[in-house]
Every structure is written in structure tokens, then in C-alpha cells.
Amino acid sequence: MTVDRTDADAVRAFHARADAVALVLMYLRDNVGLSRPLRLTDVKPRGIGHWGCTPGITAIWGAIRGATAATDRPTRLVVGTGHAGLAWLACAYLDGSLAASCPQYGPDVAGLTRLARDFGAQGGLTSEVSRQYPGAHWCGGELGHAVGVCHGLALADPGHDIVAVIGDGELETVTTAGALPALRVLRTPNLHIVVNDNGMRMGGRSALSLATDGRVAAALASVADADAVVCDDPVDLRDALAERMRRAAPASGRPGLLFYRNIKGEGMPPLPGDPPIAGSTRAHKTPVTRIRDAAALDWLTACLRDHGADRLFDDTGRLDTAPFQDCLPSAGMAPGAPCHAGAGPRPDQPDPAGGTMTEALIAHIAAVGADRGVVVTSPDELSSNRCAALLDAAGVTVREYLSEHICVYQNLGEALCGRDSWLISYEAFADLILSVVLQHVKQFQPTDGPRPAAEPPGTIHLVLTSLGWRNAYSHQSPGFLTSVLQARPAGVRIHVPSTVPALRAALAENDPEVPLRIYLFDKHHRPGEPGTVLPVAPPGGVTIVVCGDYLHTQALQAARILRDELGPSVGILPLDELTVLYRPDAAAREIRRTLRERAGDSRVMLLSSGYPDVLASLWAEAVGRPADVTRGYVSQPNCTAGSSLLAAGCTWMQLAGTAWDLMAEHGGGTRGSDHLRRYLRATEDRLRRELRGAWDDPHWFAALAAPSSTAATEGELVR
Ligand SMILES: Cc1ncc(C[n+]2csc(CCOP(=O)(O)OP(=O)(O)O)c2C)c(N)n1
Ligand SMILES: [Mg+2]
User: Which CATH number belongs to the domain containing residue 640 in this structure?
Assistant: First the structure.
């Protein structure tokens, strides 16, 4: 298919004008239409933004706009180049999509002046893509998310064409490399990946640029089983995209991989006497940082005029859209249109009263799936996490792919469509996606800066059911929760239910303002029901505050032994949701009041599911006094759960011993119980002895971590 001349001119005009707007945003704070000669006072104290990617992105944006106009297909766009904020805003200003959400940036001199002043200013618009950009997906400048997010979008929303724009440097990220072969499995013909192939990364030539004859492009397309296109002209790119969009569902089911070849930072001449900018590493950011004298002012004036900055507005000061009108589509391009997953027939649901944590989880997800359809992603760990039953639940779409990043990116794609989704992963590898998760929630912190009135995204439910404590030497660490906590993010809930009812209560919470819920529980065991131990410690007694079911089991056993010996002396206080320790809302304040009351004047032992220090300081702040003892994960070389617990001082015998010491220190009722002390020490010694050189926890200790099978061993265990 070929486009007619008007359309071709429109694409080229859009490209040129968008570059002009980008230069205005980069350098000017006044006189944005060049209605009079530039003065130094019109210029920002220093240039802001990334020029290098801009000419490529503006050309690609014009091509996408043109293709969308020609086909009338609604399109969603994800720009992986987080540093393309300058190009992004220039394009969105020009095509009106920015003003649709932020009317202050309207199509006239005043609107562009406001935008130029806000761009990069404190309290204004971020210079890298963020949530302030209407319709943008944001990833904190982390390269490598775009194709994975587009998997999620393309599958969640087959009614839209999904276009991912990535850099040739971004193409080198492992996440992008991993996301390409996934396309073979996913079959997403509505996905079009456009590579801004400008030959350069930030600090040098890209790998892609080393094979200029298109061999790398062909090889990558083959890996992805995608239709490859290589072109140097935005009009050709527009043609290729329009053709793909017209064949909205090519019989082949193949996505498109389209390479737009250009020179990084082209269109910006150097200052007289300086080395060339285009195609060099100088092009990446702001090639000329400061405009301080008449010569630099002349250079900037010429540069702006060359791109048509003086022709952006008509005589009345309105943006002149006529030259590129034919590539302004009527169909929307930004994310936001609601979409609905087909609800399947009701499944044979697992028993909602099922006894284990994972059974409760499966029952919940299956019910949600039956009601409105739901996506579950997992990095090849669904069965290992005991959740394979989800594969058979109607309305539940499971996507397994061996990359935590690709999984969470797909969840982000679902969230952009306003849909809730689940990611089921090992705790030990959740650290891999920590920055993605933190960035996602960071965007929901309240800010005073400009921000579009966007629909809240769907909630991502991150389920961690294989605890890092169990194999933290061979695997990574159980520090994910405490790293998240440390950031004290708003809009997050961290559920560490100690019992099945507590998990059910967490699952039943439904607040669309919460973009991320994290659940941590141990897939291995059946935790004790509440009520085994009175929650309130008597005066002089000890309250063990427990986060999560894993340590809860140890604490329960410790309390049981002490109570058998000393009567009601130890209480257990489960802290089932961790963000209550800092959240400013009334509900969290009320929970903190209850915690203070329950802890009363007893001694407090705080057991953290991750590393101890963060929880210790949050507790002290929330309750008004520090815990007397804090325990949590301690990294050390071993390979069994028992030795992790032992190193952390969290086995039941250590906990009981510490509680006993605390009571003794404070004159509590420890009458005549030396034999208990001796028993606890002897048991701890025995555990240490039996663990030395062992490959597994001793049977008697492991049995406690799985109370469903404790009955047979309990006599042996407790004297
Ligand atoms: C994961 C990650 N690592 C490193 C960076 C730092 N960084 C910013 S831009 C860039 C180069 C990007 O090159 P490319 O994708 O080709 O973009 P373009 O040439 O269009 O600027 C790098 C390495 C980053 N943003 N994200
Ligand atoms: Mg590049």
C-alpha cells in the first residue's frame, strides 16, 4: 500500500514541527513563537532534556499518528525510552493529546509558553516520562520494560493496536532480549514493535548498528517469529504500520518488528568551532547546555528557525495544525479506553473453606476469574508454588515465562487497561523486580505538580509463597518486603497473614486506590488457627509481635511451652499488614492505637519476616516505644530452614528462652522453672548438633514447621 502525497507531507511536517517544539521546550522560557528576535532573558539558564532520541521518536510518532489516521484503528503506545520525555511532550503537545488531559497546555502561544516553563522546573513536569504524562506508561527511566508491558497490553486488549517504541540500546537489555522469543508463544498480531534505530546507545555505538545491512534485524525478527521491516523514512514506516494495522489480525499471528534507521541527534548543528553532534555521544542529552552570548543566541535562533519554530503559530497566536492535519487521527491513541475480558463459565471452584493458605488463595483467584476473568503471571513457578490448580480454573489465564521482569511487565500492561492481575513468585527472587515495583507505586504518591486526571490503573497482586528463609543461602534473600517498607510507599498493602482467616480477610479487601498488594505466606505448611494463645500478655509478661505465618508457628510453640510451665505469661500479637505502621489514614491510625493498647506495658519481642531493622524503627515510631527485642532474617551460609531460624534467634526454643529472660529481668513470674531453661538450652544444642553437616532439618524440628503432621511427634518434641 502507498500513501498519497498529502498524507506523506503531513507525516514529514509533524516530524519537523515536533522537533521544533522539542527545541523550544529544551531551551526557551519565553518568546516561544519567535515573534521577535531572541534575547538571553528568553532562554532557560540551562538546556533541559534528551535531544539524541528526539528526531527518531518524533518521526516515529508522526508515522504512528499517520497510520492510525489512515486506518482509524485505536492505538495504545508505550515508549520504552524513558528519557524521551522531551520528544514525548513535544509530540503530545502538537497532536493535542496533552491538552486533552491538561488544558493549560493548549494549542496557542500561551499554552506552549506554560509547557516550556513547566518542563523540567521544580514542581513542574518531569523531564523523563512519568505519570504526569497523560497516557504514558512510566517505568522510572528503566530501559527494557516496553516489550513486556506490551505483551500484557496486546493480550489484555486485542481491540487496540499496541505500539512499543524502543531504542536500539534498549534492544540490548536482557528483558527485551527475553521478551522477544516470548512473542513466539504469545501470538500477538496486534503488537508492533518500532525500534528507534539511531545507531547509538548513551556511551557508544549500539550492537545493532554493527551490522548495517539489516542482518541483526532479520535475526531478531526470526527469534521473535515477527514480520521484519527496515526503513529510513518515516513515510515508509507509516506505510508499513498502516498495512499491518489494516490486517489487524494477520493470519500468521505474527507481531511486527519495525526498524526506523536514523542518525542519533540529527538536525542539531554544533556551535561554530565545536565537533559534530549528530551521530556522536554528545548527542544523547543536551548537546549545548548553556546559551550565554550573542553567538550562542544566533546559533539557537538558526536552529529553531531551521525546524520551523517561527511557523508553529498563525497570526492570531493559534497553533497551525494545517500542515500535519492529515496525520491527526480521530481514534484515540493514549491508553485509557476501558476494555473487558470475556468472563468464562463458572469453574468448579476449589473449596473456599480449604485449609491451607494456597488453597484459600486459589479459591479466591478462581472466584475472581469466574466473575470477570483474570490474568496470573508466574516465572515458571506456578506448580512449585502449589498453585497449579489455577491452570484448570475457568476465567483464569495463566502466563508463565521464566523472567520476573517479563511477568511484572505483563502485569503492568494489564494494570494500564484498568485490570487487576496476579504475579505468583518466589520471595527469594522478588528482589529482581524491586525497582520496577517501587517505581510503579512511587507514581501514586501525592504530588503538587501537574498531573492528568487519569483513571486509576488496576491493582497488581504480588504473591510470594516460597519463603526466602527456607533456602536463602542458595537463593537470594527475603529482603523484598523490608526494602519496600523502607520506602514507606503510599498506595501499597503488605499482607503477611499468620493464619488462613487473616489471608481471606486480606483477599477480600478491595480498594481501587491501592495499585499494589503484596502477600507473603509459606506454601509449605498449615499455620495454626488463632485463639491457640491469648493475644494479650498479662502485666510483667511478654507480647510476641509476629509478622507472617512462618515465624508465627515458632512463636506459637514458644508461647505454648511457656504457658504450660508458667501460666498465662506470653501473648501473641499478629501484625498481619505492615503498612499500618506508617500509613496516615484513619484506619491505620486506629490499628496503631490498638497495637499500643494490646502491647500494654508488657515486654515486646518483634519478629520480622524480612530483615529486622526497618520493622524495628517503624514499630518504635508507630507504638511510641521500641520493642525490647527484635529478630528477623540474618544472612549466613547454610542451606536449611532450621539453620536460618537458628541464626536469626527465631526457633521456638530460642524465642521461649528470650521471653523467659525478659520476664526474669523484669521480675515477672518465672518461679522455679530452671528445668525449663535447661530444657530449652538442651533442645537448642541438640538442633545445632544435628544440623552440623546435615542436608536437612532434623525430623522433629521440621515437623513443627508442618503442624499438620506434628501429632505423631509432639510427645517427643515437648519433653
Ligand atoms: C536499565 C537501564 N540501564 C541503564 C540506563 C541508563 N541509560 C539511559 S539512556 C541509555 C542509552 C539508551 O540507548 P537507546 O535505547 O538506543 O536510546 P536512544 O539512543 O534513543 O537515546 C542508557 C544506558 C537506563 N535508563 N536503564
Ligand atoms: Mg539508540
Answer: 3.40.50.920
Ligand 2 centre distance from Cα of residue 286 (Å)? 15
653-675 pLDDT per residue, tens: 999 999 999 988 877 655 667 88
**Residue 432: how many other CB atoms lie within 10 Å:** 17
**Distance in angstroms (rounded) separating the CA atoms of residues 258 and 165:** 9
Is the minimum distance from the CB of 198 to ligand 1 under 6 angstroms? yes
367 and 512 share one domain = yes
**292 C-alpha to ligand 1 centroid (Å):** 29
Predicted confidence (pLDDT) per residue in 278-335, tens digit: 999 999 999 999 999 999 999 999 999 999 999 999 999 999 999 999 888 765 544 3
pLDDT in tens, 547-590: 999 999 899 999 988 888 888 889 999 999 999 999 999 999 99
- Give, in order, the Cα–Cα distances in Å from 12 to each of 60, 173, 176, 324, 694: 10, 31, 29, 8, 71
The whole model's pTM is what?
Answer: 0.83
Q: What angle do CA 76, 247, 185 make, to 5 degrees?
A: 70
Range of the domain at 80: 12-318
Q: Does one domain contain both 566 and 664?
A: yes
Amino acid at 143: L
143 lines ligand 1 (CB under 6 A): yes
User: Is 328 within a domain?
Assistant: no
Specify the ligand 1 atom closest to the Cα of 57: 20
Of 131, 46, 133, nearest in space to 87 by CA = 133
Residues 300 and 386 in one domain: no
Q: Which of these ranges, 122-126, 445-449, 524-528, has the smallest mean pLDDT?
A: 524-528
Residue with the smallest CA separation from ligand 1 atom 16 is: 169
Q: Find the distance separating the first CA and the last CA of the chain, reported in whole Å.
A: 84
Q: Three-class SS of residue 285?
A: coil
Kindly tell me the number of DSSP H helices and DSSP E strands found in the chain.
Answer: 23, 15
SS3 460: strand
Phi-psi region of 198 (alpha: psi -120 to 50; beta: other; left: phi over 0): alpha
Confidence at residue 455, expressed as pLDDT on a 0 to 100 scale? 65
> Which residues are registered as beta bridge partners of 424?
463
- Which ligand 1 atom is the nearest neighbour of the CA of 198? 19
- 393: in domain: yes
| Ligand 1 contact, 200 CB (< 6 A) | yes
Cα of 201 vs centre of ligand 2, distance in Å, is 4
SS3 of 371, please? helix
